Amino acid sequence: MSARPAVGRRAIEVLLEAELPDADGRRLLLVDATYEGPGRSAEFTAALGGGSRRVRITDQDSPLGIAEAWQRHRVEDDPGGDSVLVVTGAVPADQIGWDLRAHAVRQRPLSVDRAELVKQLFGATDVDPRMAGERWLLDALLDAEPADGWPRAGTVLTRDRAVRTLLSARLGLGDTTADTLDLDVDTLFAWTRTPTGPARFAALAAAEREGLSDWLARAVGPAAPTLLALAADGRGADALPLGALASAALASAAPEATGFALGTLFGPALASFEALKPFADAVTGVLTRWIAEAEGHGPQRSDARARVLDILDRADRLADDALLGSLTGTDRLLPSGYRTRLRRLAGSLNGPASEAQEALRDLTAHHLAALYADSTDNARTAVRLVRWLQDPLEPVKSVADGVHSHMTSSGWADMAVGILAEGDTSRDPAVADAYQRLIEAVRTRRATLDEQFARRLVQWSEGACRQAPGGALLIEEVLAEAAVPLSRPVVREDGGASGRERGRPLILVLDGMSADVAVQLAGALDRRAWTEVVPKPRPGEEASRRAAVSMLPSVTTISRASLLCGQHAEGGQSTERAGFAAFWKKRHRTAQLFHKGGYEGPPGHRLAPEVLRALASDDIVGVVLNTVDDALADGREGARGRWAPEDIGRLPDLLNEARNYGRPVVLVSDHGHIIDRTPRGHRQQLTQGAPGEGARWRTGAPGDGEIVVSGPRVRGRVTLAWREDLRYTARQAGYHGGASLAEVTVPVLTLVPSAELVPEGWTLLPAERAAPRWWYEGQGTAAAVTPAEAIAGPVVDTDTMVFGRRPVIRPPDAQAVRKQEEDGLGARTVRSAAYRSQREFVRGAPPDKAVIAVLDALLAAGGKLSPGAVAAAAQAATGRSQRNPERFATVLERLLNIDGYSVIQLVESGRTVQLDRELLEQQFHGETS
């Protein structure tokens, strides 16, 4: 006699649901199967026929046992009731008498076909034939049915549909009601990090675990069996960390030795050494995609970052436990590998810049470089300072040369020092010590520049005045030189007399803003809203930011008053308001000046109504912001070396309103400042000044680190400190009033919200041209050379700025310049038949020379430049100013994008022009790269 199949409670329930509706009241169900529940009997309540009925199950092995059970059920257990007796067992049908079978449903023992039952549960008319022989799957589907039933499967229940539905119900992978289950390796590994997912898998029967593992191996990939084996072993949460560790081990110099150690970590979950690589590769792919998500700008960024770092930190701890740290410490994925590379970079900072640059490339190639953004930026900043230190030190030739060089170079070094001085988030003592030594080296070099500048300042101050500035921009001339040109009539796009209107600049005075702060604020501005402009340089010179010379001593009462009055002046707010109005009255304009307490809005308002009315009027408006200067006393500067527009009280609001009202902006200071970076235990011999004297100036004979100045722009005869560690008052976060470059240099930034507001004789200053050459790797940049030069040399590398990316090329050979002017891809594109044909359909197309220059500059830059740099390249080639870079880029799109293919396009929300070289060659030359 063949063995009877075994059935569980759920199979019996399904059988009852199918048979009782047509049973004519019969309450005995004979089942040709054995019961596999606990014991030989069971009793429960089941939902049958729209109501609840008691069900008793008994397993009998003889005809007499069946008869006794039925008799007891009718007479003793439930006389006259509606409960159902289900009899299972191994008694053949021909041994059961007809008197007993007459009471049974269908009057015979019913066979159990699990596939048939499953088909009923899914409402299908047929099931995949492969499922008939897979008892584990059929039993699991019967056992795991949700309370509201399985979703309808249509005509045929396929095996894949059945398994996917089972995965959803058993393991929480997907939704049982969905038509499809989007399941990939990322989803599976993410499941291992859920609170109950791996535990639910471990609780399944061995046959079901094996069946699901086999199916997932085919559906997801060869990593699934190892992952699920770890889950079954209670270590599913370590699947990703172990995979990351396996990837590092296999990439080490001794993969077999580390693989042996990993076998101990994986235990029985690792079927063979050959299974290690596909598992490690899958984990690497998952983590790489999650890292990309963490590097993005979506709402899940912070969660993705925390998830990745948690996994990889755990991998490092596992490596330490297994004594694998020495073999995996250079890995490109593990945090320990990042730290090793960072230490190597720190050790290279006292060597050649090329070694430091190579160490930086190695660091930025690590997968976690962007996730450890602060630490990576610090490392990049440190390498920049190494390049600055190894650049030849140009002596300060004059006061004008000194402030200009500080604004365009040494002020950037001050900014870099401020960033490094904050400390590194890695908290590695070796890295911190290396940065400290680097900062001291920079301060020593800066002291040399400050001393040279101070000596020039002594001679210059004796006769410097508005009539004889010695080539310098004086602070009392800033309004005339920077604000007045922006106030002249401009021609709106509609043209004609009605299109002319007077400019209405907003002058924002950031009290105490030094060059390094100005550089950061300018770099953080939205280039889609603001374009920096400067006067066109003289032939042979490059456009650059301007800086003025403060009054001496560099204190607010004389420097700010002189700035706002447009002449030598001294006094407080009333003097400044009167002088500001008088200056503009001479130019037939009315003006309003707002000080601290006058521009902040009442509760619920960002700006005062008076300020908004002034900005909406035709008046010239000035606002004095004291955030930076106030920070010197309260310690804000000492705590953090980075500044952004939102750190300056109401600056973003004022800029937004200026843009809304079409106002250009002059962002200017009255003086700079230095930061007190002397150690807290440093005891300085203070020279106490007389009453009314400041932190960095006094009267009397000069000592070491001091100069004596006098002249038309000096308040009498005063002694000024140029050495940064000298002060005459109690310690603060920072000071001003002295003779150092950081204190005397007054940054002057001019911004316009639209191209039509660019004054006559002025030009755009692209972000690529604002930074010094040493800020980037190499000796030159595509944005800072002529278009012909830009095409003559290959790209060396790119290095991320604090505020963007800048391409780097080597200085070109003159003969190569001439040859590539004729044979370069830009020139060949313009000569192509496809270009000539396309040009006929584009109105206002730029000259061919401009297009060649733009294409060659983009190619030299690796395919990306800011719209301002693109416009500057065109201007350099044609001499014609492109006042609206974004519009110019749009015209180039119409000119070069054939049949909708984006050869050139504005990306990153309009901040970058991107060129696809391969598409350019295909569309205009029929070639592929």
Concise description?
The chain is an alpha/beta fold and 929 residues long. 46% of the residues lie in helices and 13% in strands.
Structural account:
Helix content is 46%, strand content 13%. It has 929 residues and is of the alpha/beta class. It contains 38 helices and 30 strands. The strands form nine sheets. Strands 9, 12, 13, 14, 15, 16, 17, 23 and 24 form a nine-stranded mixed beta sheet that branches. A four-stranded mixed beta sheet has the order 2-6-5-4, sandwiched between helices. The protein has a three-stranded antiparallel beta sheet with strand order 19-21-20. About 5% of the residues have low confidence.
Topology:
Blueprint: E1 6-7, H1 9-19, E2 28-30, E3 34-35, E4 41-48, E5 51-60, H2 63-77, E6 84-89, H3 98-101, H4 114-122, E7 126-127, H5 135-143, E8 156-157, H6 159-171, H7 185-191, H8 197-202, H9 206-219, H10 223-232, H11 239-250, H12 255-266, H13 276-295, H14 301-321, H15 325-328, H16 335-348, H17 353-364, H18 373-390, H19 399-421, H20 429-463, E9 473-474, H21 478-487, E10 489-491, E11 500-502, E12 506-510, H22 515-524, E13 531-535, E14 546-549, H23 556-565, H24 573-585, E15 591-594, H25 609-616, E16 620-625, H26 627-634, H27 636-639, H28 651-660, E17 665-668, E18 674-675, E19 697-698, E20 706-710, E21 717-721, E22 734-735, H29 741-744, E23 745-752, E24 762-764, H30 767-770, E25 780-781, H31 787-790, E26 795-801, E27 804-809, H32 814-823, H33 825-831, H34 833-839, H35 848-860, E28 864-865, H36 867-878, H37 885-896, E29 904-907, E30 912-915, H38 917-925
